[in-house]
Structure formats: C-alpha cells, structure tokens
Design a protein that fits this description.
The chain has 147 residues and is α+β, with helices and mostly antiparallel strands. The chain has one domain: Glutaredoxin (3-Layer(aba) Sandwich). It is 34% helix and 17% strand. It has a 4-stranded mixed β-sheet with strand order 2-1-3-4, with helices on both faces. A hairpin with a 2-residue loop joins strand 3 and strand 4.
Length: 147
C-alpha cells in the first residue's frame, strides 16, 4: 500500500484542528486523511513548528522551502513523489494518488463529514479538548501554551 507524507506549515497543534476558530479546509483534510488511513494507506504528518528536522531531512521539501518559502506548504508526498504543494488536496486526489477507488458516496462523504452546506464546521467536529483548550466557549477560558 502507499505512503502519504504531509508537510504542514507551522500550526499550533499537529493538525491545526483545534481552538475556537477551526479552518474548514483543515477539518476537511483531517477527515480525508483519516479516511485514506482507514483504507490501509500509511499516513504521516509533519508540522513545521513542531518537527522542523523532518523538513530539513527531506530533500524535496527542503528544496521547495528554499525556492518558494512557506508558500510551498502544505506539501504532500506519495511514495516519495511530490504530488501537491501550496494547497491541501481533495479526498479524490489523495485516493487517486494512493490507488484507492472512490465512489460518489465516499467522495461526497468528505464534504458532509466536515462542513454544513454553508461551509460552517459541524459541531460534531469540535475538538473537546484540543491543544488550545476546550472547544466549548462557556468552559473556562484557560488555554494551553500552544496558541
């Protein structure tokens, strides 16, 4: 089976899906990666702020950063080949690169799993105790040091 490696820009936590203002694109991508992983694909994510050595140790990522800077991130490699740079790919793209068949229902599932029709995050995707503290705005305003 394939191996997908994602090199994310600097974020407060490993997926960026934490805190009160979750980016719908990051939530969608996290759901897509979870789905790909459930299909037997090996998935690894690296965050520039937390794992800088992974960026330096990978020649393609290092070259992308030297030529385009952080605009080259996120960078997605599949089996060692750079497939995407500068934006998060769709579930369909991830599946195609990994050799997974996508049906209309699994492709549509990526859209409905992370957002409502208006593009708002579904409450079920809130991280109850993400790296930036409780997602419940009525809970204590205590935050961890990551945000």
């Amino acid at each position: 089976m394939s191996t997908i490696r994602v090199f994310d820009p600097a974020m407060c936590c490993s997926t960026g899906v934490c805190g009160p203002g979750i980016d719908p694109q990051l939530a969608r991508f996290a759901a897509d990666l979870a789905w790909v992983k459930s299909q037997g694909v090996s998935v690894a994510r690296f965050n520039l702020s937390q794992q800088p050595a992974a960026f330096v140790d990978n020649a393609a990522v290092k070259q992308a950063l030297e030529s385009r800077g952080e605009a080259s991130l996120p960078l997605v490699e599949v089996d060692g080949d750079v497939k995407s740079s500068g934006s998060y790919p769709s579930r369909d793209e991830l599946a195609a690169w990994a050799g997974i068949a996508v049906t209309p229902s699994t492709s549509e599932g990526a859209k409905s799993a992370s957002t409502t029709g208006s593009g708002q995050i579904r409450p079920s995707l809130s991280i109850s105790n993400g790296c930036c503290g409780p997602a419940d705005p009525t809970a204590a305003q205590k935050k961890s040091g990551c945000c």
